[in-house]
Amino acid sequence: MNLNATLFFQMIVFFVLAWVTMKFVWPPITKAIEERRQKIAEGLAAAEKGKSDLAQSQAKISAMEQSAKADLHLRTTEAEKHGAQIIEQARQEAEAERARIVEQARQEALQEAQRVRDALRDEVAKLAVQGASQILKREVDQKAHAELLAQLKTQL
């Protein structure tokens, strides 16, 4: 056989095989590669979106945390103020109660002192009458001299 003819037929077979490959084999391979490339691109886009969503979520969480801390600080401050007000109110009520008790005790002491004075006046009047009766060696009638005894009490 002739080398040129073999070479010619091999070139024809090569071109036919290349044409069949380009016409029937290459398009499905290209299509599969393109679909895979598109899936990879979509996956990367979803990953980027996920990253941005994560960053936004973290920012929201950070803002909520700061807000909660500020709210906690505000509530703590208000609770301390309220506690101080309650303590001050209790202190004022206790002071008022103490003043009332002291005044009541003072009034009772004054009443007791007055009662003791009255009892002492009566006792002094009785002793004066007894002393006068012993001096005079006769008994003085208390009923008859009630006016005189009343004057003596007021003088004492």
Quick tags:
156 residues, mainly alpha, 2 helices, 92% helix, 0% strand, rod-shaped, transmembrane, hydrogen ion transport, ATP_synth_b/b'su_bac/chlpt, ATP synthase subunit b, CF(0)
Detailed description of the structure:
This protein is mainly α and about 160 residues long. It has one domain (about 5-155). It has two helices and no strands. The protein has helices at about 5-135, 145-155. Helix 1 packs across helix 2.
List the helices and strands and how they pair.
Elements: H1 3-136, H2 146-155
Helix pairs in contact: 1-2
Amount of helix: over 70%
How many domains make up the coordinates?
1
Shape: rod-shaped
Determine the strand fraction and express it as a percent band. Answer: under 5%
Mean pLDDT: 86
**What's the total count of β strands?**
0
Structural class: mainly alpha
Q: Specify the number of helices.
A: 2
Q: H/E order of the elements? A: HH
How far the N terminus sits from the C terminus, by CA atoms, comes to 173 Å
Note poorly predicted spans: none
Main β sheet profile: none
Cα Rg:
61 Å
Keywords: ATP synthesis, Cell membrane, CF(0), Coiled coil, Hydrogen ion transport, Ion transport, Membrane, Transmembrane, Transmembrane helix, Transport
Pfam family, one: ATP-synt_B
Coiled coil: 84-130
Organism: Orrella daihaiensis
State the gist of this model.
With 156 residues, the protein is mainly alpha-helical. 92% of the residues lie in helices and 0% in strands. The chain is built from two helices and no strands.
